Amino acid sequence: MLRERSAHHTYLLGDKHRQGVRSRGPVRRRRKHGNVIRKQGKNIIVGDYMESKKIAAERAVDYIQDGMIVGLGTGSTANWAIQRIGHKIKKGLNIRAIATSKDSEIMARGLGIQLITFSEMEVINITIDGADEVDNEWNLIKGGGGALLREKIVASASQKLVIIVDESKLVNRLGKFPLPVEVVKFGYEMTIRNLNKLGCDPKLRVLGNRPYITDNGNYIIDCDFKTIEQPAELHNEINMIPGVVDNGLFINIARNVIVGYNDGTVKELEKII
Ligand code: 5RP
């Protein structure tokens, strides 16, 4: 059962581009800039996907309370959340955080966010992360930025996972976004053949003219399924292939999704189980 909370918010445009790493994966073509309207004496930009990411991210940060251990996601949407957390820390918020990628770690450190490791904690109170696709059951595709493994480890250790997306990420059925699969380098050609047998068009992710390497020293295979009928089954089938470390399907993990819309509104969706 889904419960929806909605509020109307308008914000000024923040000019932040997608992370370099993110653009190495499959890319969506979206409009970057919206229209400027004048409201309450301010220039408001609507119809901008970066802005819709930002408003979703900032709403999620409202859930963070003093003393919490916070999981920091990866990607352009999660970056907005990290920035907001950094801002709140300067105003006195006291939290410790664990990052899902080296990029997020570097950003967090630069903003004065105290980082810890799993040896220093047992449970993460809240994790805020983006997604590449979110279906009606709130199953996700993640890993467009190559961080799916650390993201899944952090999400699984979290009491609350808040997924922040712009409206373009909502889909009826997963699969239009090629599913990222992290594989070890050894025998990856064989692993690709085995992935292909599951009905997808698998492609080794490259950066320039070299294979893209994850923070864990592995390769990413982007698997174009077009449509994924049974995400839970597919998740397990992929992870059974020798050489696969993990895949970007997040099944039944997300309970809270915050969606930023191009018209400046934000919706908070909560899954009641
Ligand atoms: C990184 C991810 C990101 O959360 C996902 O790719 C969404 O990225 P963005 O917020 O830049 O659209 O899974 O591995």
Task: Give a written overview of the molecule.
- This protein is of the alpha/beta class and about 270 residues long.
- The chain folds into two domains: about 1-170 and about 250-270, Rossmann fold; about 180-245, Alpha-Beta Plaits, CATH 3.30.70.
- It is about 25% helix and about 30% strand.
- It is built from six helices and 19 strands.
- An eight-stranded mixed beta sheet has the order 1-19-18-10-7-4-5-6, with helices on both faces.
- Strand 8 and strand 9 (about 140) form a beta hairpin.
- The longest helix has 15 residues, at about 75-90.
- The chain is globular, with a radius of gyration of 18 Å.
- The termini are close together.
- The model is unreliable at about 1-35 and about 35-45 (pLDDT under 50).
- Bound molecules: ribulose-5-phosphate.
- Ribulose-5-phosphate binds near residues 73, 131, 145 and 147.
- Ribulose-5-phosphate (5RP) binds near residues 18, 22, 144, 146 and 151.
Offer a few descriptive terms.
273 residues; Alpha-Beta Plaits; 6 helices; globular; 4-stranded antiparallel β-sheet; 8-stranded mixed β-sheet; Rossmann fold; binds ribulose-5-phosphate; 2 domains
